[in-house]
Amino acid sequence: MSLRFQSLKIITDKEILPPADYLFDGKTLQKAPANHSDPKETLLDCTGLLGSRGWTDLRCFSGEPGQEYRESLESLAQALIQGGMTEAVLLPNTQPPLQSKNEVAYVQNRTAHLFPTFHIQAAVTRDFLGEGLTEMMDLNHYGIQVFGEGLVPLSHSDRMMKALQYLQQMDGVLFDQSQDPLLALFGQMHEGIVSTRLGLKGIPDLAEEVAVQKNLEILRYTGGRLHFQTLSTRGALEQIRKAKAEGLKVTADISIYQLLFTDEDLLDFDTCLKVMPPFRGKGQREALLEGLQDGTIDALVSNHVPHDNDAKNMEFDLSPFGMAGLPTFVPALVRLGEELGYPLLISKLCSGPQKVLGKADAPWDTLTVFDPEASWTLDHTSNASLAENSPFWGKALKGKVKYLINRGKTEGIHE
Known about the structure:
Number of strands: 18
Number of domains: 2
Distance between the termini: 9 Å
Largest sheet: 8 strands, mixed
Structural class: alpha/beta
Helix content: 25-40%
Strand content: 15-25%
Order of helices and strands: EEEEEEHEHEHEHEEHEHEHEHEHHHHEEE
């Protein structure tokens, strides 16, 4: 199979290159002469399209095993394709959790034939209780290098310390959504003027900032690699900024939709906007933008947490946290691209996540091509996910994936 992407603008970490032809020979992509083509090539007109290396999502949820009605591995793969992803890290919060070689082997077998490349984040403690450690060394023998509690903060300091120590023996990385569970207890949204007006228990910035500070101190003591997920506060980012300057092996990501909403958007009690961490104020959004631009934040994630309609169709304080972030990831990127420019954003989807996963420069064997002007509506016909818990449901959107390549596998290409 030989594919020629004609007049494609490639986005790098620094710039958008002028339109050119790129040739995929079945294994790698390379720039091709525009005035010479092979009759056997499949020609793809990419006028007006943008492309880059394939995108990596460091945080997405599948209900399988145990909650396939929320999102199966197959439907998640389709949602990842719709979101422009060629690679993804699976959260461990299934039923049963991804915490032993049996669950890991099951997921590995079920995803081997799917288009995206999946990495499993295996649990650190059994059943996420913060007590007994999982068989981390045994799991590593099954190819697992990413560990964490997923949707649950690893708040037990001793388990955090031991996990970082064990992971150094296997060149692994610890992922954590750092939050002090007691400071956030019963919280429904960001603590501030809006939460007071709505009469909802708030989650203070302090809940995140105290946990980040504690975990950084543990990292200083143990060494190792620690990745903070879905940060949302200025104070937490400032601590990570200093830790990086100090030389600690620390990285961080944020949810892309954290840049699209603030706590003021919750005034009508839309449960689709009830997420963790919660949407903060406008000042916190400005801090996140600064963190993206100065390199404190390494990656953007979808934080795709699907729920069935019944779970979200209830009172705000009873509804679970989470948004289906993958189906509308490209429109979110397009909206932010107008403000921040595509090179910065693409760096947080390509080189940034690969750095977090500890990967060296790889051959150019992945590709995401999207149309920033394509208009569509998120509805039952267009949605690739099983879930509908999105604030964009029924709304007109701009930005859509056109072609994908992942290590010889293709999507959207018809020869």
